[in-house]
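ok trying again, last paste got cut off:
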Amino acid sequence: MFSNNVKRLLVRHTKCSIRTTSVRCLSTAEDVTSLSKSTTNFKGDYDVIIAGGGMVGCSLACALAKDSLLSNLKVLLLEGSPNKSFQLKPEYSNRVVALNQNTKALMSSLDVWRHVEAMRLQPVRHMQVWDACSDVMIAFNSEELLDDDVAYIVENDVMLHAINKELSTAKNDNIQIVYDAKIAGYQLPKQEDLKPKSSVQMANGDTYSCKLLIGADGANSAVRKAMGVQYLSWSYEQMGVVATLNLSEECENTTAWQRWLPTGPVAILPLDSKRSSLVWSTWQDDAKELLKLPEDQFVDALNDALWKQYPRNTGIETVTSWTSSWLKRVGLPDGTARQLPPSISNVVPNSRAAFPLGFGHSTRYIGPGVALIGDAAHRVHPLAGQGVNLGFGDVKDLTHLLSEAMYSGLEITHPDWMGKYESVRQRHNVPTQLMIEMLHRIYTVDLMPVVLARSVGLQITNALQPLKKMIMSHATT
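nice, full thing came through this time. structure:
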């Protein structure tokens, strides 16, 4: 079974922890319904309940409302945060996402992308990644590899507002949203139940029941814990320092820059012609110190991270120089032509923050009448900007497979389509997670053999256009 293979691959990690949480299950689906309806605060029975109203959970609700075969389903979206009014401010948020072409296509099909474009986004047309220990680089250009931009940088709150705006105008009375929803617990059905139903108990005493429960409640998913599935996770003992940066000079600014330091990658993502967004992954103690620094010292540290010359090993320099000459002789790019990253003039006041970095993967995405999407199912290091894109991929495939199942006359919780969902998503998500994990491991060591191997490998990858296209193809699907 695919999920078992995943477990065997990942369990070798020395810091891996496997958490299994048990849950009290009701004996039959009818018991769930009778229990709910006997409760004085029973609020209703739904086809689908989505626990979690972040970008991924709201996208799923929007997708269900837009699909002609699913629009008649009675859907409840439970969001733990209060319903806040949104106003686009001149200042950029310090939390952004890099959206790939697959996500753009999904959002366009849901009529969400037009709202994003009406607010603001920044296309990424070039990407340059280089190694601080050898200065070997790889570059991606949209005109060479894709028919469209490499990615789009969008603020988290802009993206969420665009989804919610379209969801509110979808004119589907079957979609209901409860804000400030504090969930106390779940009661899930057993494997042998023919018509599984779940019960959701709220902290205020309200109770809801549903046929299909979707866990979109993040990396610490209570739905996943209630399922009792194994969850493989570890901390990187790192934090991602984020900030909004002002550039020294106005420029086109459509390039994403990432430099691999021995402590982790520092990435500068374009926002507009004058500003960029910072995502700097480093060890926890270093991150805390960076947050404490006065603004001018923080800017100096950041410019050092982008420009500082690290000690070079003469053996590595000799081999990479020879590789560059060999590539040039056979007519391939040798990686010497490059752009220079922008220098940072200052950081926007109060924009610095940090969040912990970790890995997580649920060995099962489904249970009887339950499915996981987004960070509830998988969590990755932000070095490749793939986290939220994997979640949106879950939304696309789950909606498509559920729609096919309904067209074929299957029940909403039929194990055939749910099994396909788990298989399709794990076949995409797990290789992506393993690739990101491998990159993190080989770039956070400065041992000479490792630096040599990764440097030569990066040179060759940069020279081979079909290989770069394959990498971009996987990253954008």
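cool. Residues 59 and 163 are 6 Å apart (CA to CA). Residues 415-443 form the longest helix (29 residues).
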